[in-house]
Design a protein that fits this description.
The protein is an alpha+beta fold and 228 residues long. The chain contains 10 helices and 4 strands. The chain has 2 domains: 78 residues, Glutaredoxin; 133 residues, Glutathione S-transferase Yfyf (Class Pi), Chain A, domain 2 (Up-down Bundle). Helix 1 packs parallel to helix 3. Bound molecules: glutathione.
């Protein structure tokens, strides 16, 4: 049976992309082996499994590698349809996918803050990042418990990094973004998400993450990657 084949996840502890795959595997109660990658010295397996981007996460199912966190989440949902993470109705599914894509496209907005060198650049990047959060405040879960309704779904997992990673990110760049007085509903959603056992018991400690982000920021500022 397809769903009984061996599952392996190549990841890196600080990666929010890896984190959402771990959450999905746990929600579906799928047993898997975890391989921690050193991203400064990637394993031959990772380079073979993801020769195009050479990034984590990579899910290996029955020997077949799958890359890109959003693609992996969709794959997990199809192979293990129990505890569904996408709505059943095609229209609601399309809406969920719209927000997942929005999150993917806007993710880089936050990293622009990491690379901002001047005060002006930082202010511009901050404004853009707050705009993204305001959109989620207005269009997001609203009065629902989660984006998905009463239980969490793929959209919640996609934005789940906001619940723990954003605080470490804010501390690293010295900018407050998720102000509860300005973004009350998004803030409340983030608090609820963070309290879920699968999230609470799994995300890296705030201090460890801040130290990691500070090191990454220094490295990026000395030698910025070309991604824009
Ligand atoms: N779009 C990818 C992004 C994955 C990604 O950026 N992974 C980072 C870790 S957070 C990585 O592997 N970086 C290694 C590198 O760029 O060399 C996804 O959604 O999976």
């Amino acid at each position: 049976m397809e769903e009984d084949k061996e599952v392996k996840l190549h990841g890196s502890w600080a990666s929010p992309f890896v984190q959402k795959v771990k959450w999905a595997l746990q929600l579906k109660q799928i047993k898997y082996d975890y391989v921690e990658e050193d991203l400064s010295n990637k394993s031959d397996s990772l380079l073979q499994y993801n020769p195009v981007y050479k990034k984590v996460p990579v899910l290996v199912h029955g020997g077949n590698p799958i890359s890109e966190s959003t693609v992996i989440l969709e794959y997990i949902e199809q192979v293990w349809p129990h505890n569904p993470l996408l709505p059943q109705h095609p229209y609601e599914r399309a809406i969920a996918r719209f927000w997942i894509q929005f999150g993917e496209q806007k993710g880089l907005t936050f990293f622009a803050l990491m690379f901002a060198k001047t005060h002006d650049e930082q202010e511009k990047a901050k404004k853009n990042a707050i705009e993204v959060l305001k959109t989620l405040e207005e269009e997001g879960p609203g009065d629902k418990i989660f984006f998905n309704g009463d239980s969490i779904g793929l959209v919640d997992l996609s934005f789940g990094w906001i619940s723990y990673f954003l605080e470490a990110f804010e501390e690293t760049v010295g900018v407050k973004l998720l102000e509860p007085s300005i973004l009350p509903r998004l803030h409340a959603w983030a608090q609820r998400f963070k309290e879920l056992p699968i999230v609470k018991e799994n995300h890296p400690s705030h201090e460890k993450l801040v130290a990691h982000l500070r090191r990454s920021r220094e490295k990026f500022l000395k030698n910025p990657p070309i991604i824009f």
